């Protein structure tokens, strides 16, 4: 099967590749996009490399889902409405079983969020998936990392740490019974981007970022951009019953430095607590208040006894981890 047959069979969807902002999609040298009048574009790109971002054992359908999910999570962190995406895919061969599963998972999530595949590229090579997403938001409403202020609350959505726990099981450093392992593996391989929550937080949250490389590192990026610090309490960090049954050191590792959570961590004024909770309820997304923004730079985490934890654990870094 050649490149253009591959595109036509697995990535072209007659009658569903155009509409909304996508005036002309797959089939030309460029896509033609027409933004909503008066709105601003929000654009992000993420690359997934086999052996670095996903295991070779992951099911193609789940890989298709995750490839788009991690990009939608970036739009969610900025409060954007998803509109279009572009896929560049390198793979060793045109394996039809892989392509069928991958494209099915990709489009299932795309349809759930109303985002359209508008173009991209395919080539032979080591398995490498690059997606660029485009979203929109009304002017001045995009959530950025730079708006947090001292005295505000720190919130997080969902639960943290399960994906890292699954990775440790895959690495052989921990073991879990079958049902528990499948639960955390699901978190690792099928993350759910918090797109609806991000949109609901426009005008409420002052800063936001998605937790892709670990809470400590990602919140640290937000704090640096906002020129503030924060104090968190380990006991307040939301976790699943599976992770909650693990030794304290494992919980700390997974909660603070585990990547692949794709939850939102964000800040909001203390007088907006009811509005934040309403945003969570209206989107079916649990949200938890986990700390407070402070003037002093840096991130401080206290254990259940009020003692400051030794902050030697590092979040994921693509060139050091």
UniProtKB/TrEMBL annotation:
<feature type="binding site">
    <location>
        <position position="46"/>
    </location>
    <ligand>
        <name>Mg(2+) 1</name>
    </ligand>
</feature>
<keyword id="KW-0784">Thiamine biosynthesis</keyword>
<feature type="binding site">
    <location>
        <position position="46"/>
    </location>
    <ligand>
        <name>Mg(2+) 2</name>
    </ligand>
</feature>
<feature type="binding site">
    <location>
        <position position="74"/>
    </location>
    <ligand>
        <name>Mg(2+) 4</name>
    </ligand>
</feature>
<dbReference type="InterPro" id="IPR010918">
    <property type="entry name" value="PurM-like_C_dom"/>
</dbReference>
<dbReference type="InterPro" id="IPR036921">
    <property type="entry name" value="PurM-like_N_sf"/>
</dbReference>
<dbReference type="GO" id="GO:0009030">
    <property type="term" value="F:thiamine-phosphate kinase activity"/>
</dbReference>
<feature type="binding site">
    <location>
        <position position="29"/>
    </location>
    <ligand>
        <name>Mg(2+) 3</name>
    </ligand>
</feature>
<keyword id="KW-0067">ATP-binding</keyword>
<feature type="binding site">
    <location>
        <position position="29"/>
    </location>
    <ligand>
        <name>Mg(2+) 4</name>
    </ligand>
</feature>
<feature type="binding site">
    <location>
        <position position="212"/>
    </location>
    <ligand>
        <name>ATP</name>
    </ligand>
</feature>
<dbReference type="Pfam" id="PF02769">
    <property type="entry name" value="AIRS_C"/>
</dbReference>
<feature type="domain" description="PurM-like N-terminal">
    <location>
        <begin position="27"/>
        <end position="136"/>
    </location>
</feature>
<keyword id="KW-0479">Metal-binding</keyword>
<protein>
    <recommendedName>
        <fullName>Thiamine-monophosphate kinase</fullName>
        <ecNumber>2.7.4.16</ecNumber>
    </recommendedName>
</protein>
<feature type="binding site">
    <location>
        <position position="74"/>
    </location>
    <ligand>
        <name>Mg(2+) 2</name>
    </ligand>
</feature>
<comment type="pathway">
    <text>Cofactor biosynthesis; thiamine diphosphate biosynthesis; thiamine diphosphate from thiamine phosphate: step 1/1.</text>
</comment>
<keyword id="KW-0460">Magnesium</keyword>
<feature type="binding site">
    <location>
        <position position="145"/>
    </location>
    <ligand>
        <name>ATP</name>
    </ligand>
</feature>
<feature type="binding site">
    <location>
        <position position="210"/>
    </location>
    <ligand>
        <name>Mg(2+) 3</name>
    </ligand>
</feature>
<dbReference type="InterPro" id="IPR036676">
    <property type="entry name" value="PurM-like_C_sf"/>
</dbReference>
<feature type="binding site">
    <location>
        <position position="53"/>
    </location>
    <ligand>
        <name>substrate</name>
    </ligand>
</feature>
<feature type="binding site">
    <location>
        <position position="213"/>
    </location>
    <ligand>
        <name>Mg(2+) 5</name>
    </ligand>
</feature>
<comment type="similarity">
    <text>Belongs to the thiamine-monophosphate kinase family.</text>
</comment>
<keyword id="KW-0808">Transferase</keyword>
<feature type="binding site">
    <location>
        <position position="44"/>
    </location>
    <ligand>
        <name>Mg(2+) 4</name>
    </ligand>
</feature>
<dbReference type="InterPro" id="IPR006283">
    <property type="entry name" value="ThiL-like"/>
</dbReference>
<feature type="binding site">
    <location>
        <position position="121"/>
    </location>
    <ligand>
        <name>Mg(2+) 1</name>
    </ligand>
</feature>
<feature type="binding site">
    <location>
        <position position="74"/>
    </location>
    <ligand>
        <name>Mg(2+) 3</name>
    </ligand>
</feature>
<feature type="binding site">
    <location>
        <begin position="120"/>
        <end position="121"/>
    </location>
    <ligand>
        <name>ATP</name>
    </ligand>
</feature>
<keyword id="KW-0547">Nucleotide-binding</keyword>
<dbReference type="Pfam" id="PF00586">
    <property type="entry name" value="AIRS"/>
</dbReference>
<comment type="function">
    <text>Catalyzes the ATP-dependent phosphorylation of thiamine-monophosphate (TMP) to form thiamine-pyrophosphate (TPP), the active form of vitamin B1.</text>
</comment>
<keyword id="KW-0418">Kinase</keyword>
<feature type="domain" description="PurM-like C-terminal">
    <location>
        <begin position="181"/>
        <end position="302"/>
    </location>
</feature>
<dbReference type="InterPro" id="IPR016188">
    <property type="entry name" value="PurM-like_N"/>
</dbReference>
<feature type="binding site">
    <location>
        <position position="260"/>
    </location>
    <ligand>
        <name>substrate</name>
    </ligand>
</feature>
<feature type="binding site">
    <location>
        <position position="316"/>
    </location>
    <ligand>
        <name>substrate</name>
    </ligand>
</feature>
């Amino acid at each position: 099967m050649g490149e253009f047959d591959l595109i036509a069979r697995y990535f072209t969807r007659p009658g569903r590749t155009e509409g909304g902002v996508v005036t002309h999609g797959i089939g030309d040298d460029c896509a033609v996009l027409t933004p909503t009048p008066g709105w601003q574009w929000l654009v992000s790109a993420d690359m997934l490399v086999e052996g670095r971002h996903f295991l070779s054992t992951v099911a193609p359908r789940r890989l298709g889902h995750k490839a788009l999910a991690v990009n939608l999570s970036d739009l969610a962190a900025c409060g954007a409405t998803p509109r279009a995406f572009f896929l560049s895919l390198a793979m060793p061969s045109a394996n039809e079983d892989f392509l069928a599963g991958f494209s099915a998972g990709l489009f299932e999530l795309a349809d759930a969020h109303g985002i359209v595949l508008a173009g991209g590229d395919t080539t032979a090579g080591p398995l490498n998936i690059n997606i660029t997403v485009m979203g929109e938001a009304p002017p001045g409403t995009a959530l950025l990392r730079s708006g947090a202020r001292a005295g505000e609350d720190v919130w997080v959505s969902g639960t943290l740490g399960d994906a890292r726990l699954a990775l440790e099981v895959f690495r052989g450093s921990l073991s879990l019974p079958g049902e528990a392992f499948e639960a955390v593996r699901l978190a690792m391989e099928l993350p759910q981007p918090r797109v609806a929550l991000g949109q609901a937080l426009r005008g409420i949250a002052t800063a936001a970022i998605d937790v892709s490389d670990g809470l400590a590192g990602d919140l640290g990026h937000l704090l640096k951009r906002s020129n503030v610090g924060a104090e968190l309490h380990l006991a307040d960090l939301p976790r699943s019953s599976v992770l909650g049954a693990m030794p304290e050191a494992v919980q700390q590792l997974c909660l603070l430095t585990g990547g692949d959570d794709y939850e939102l961590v964000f800040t909001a004024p203390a007088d907006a607590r009811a509005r934040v909770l309403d945003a969570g309820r209206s989107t079916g997304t649990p949200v938890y208040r986990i700390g407070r923004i402070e003037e002093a730079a840096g991130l401080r985490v206290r254990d259940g006894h009020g003692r400051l934890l030794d902050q030697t654990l590092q979040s994921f870094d693509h060139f050091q981890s």
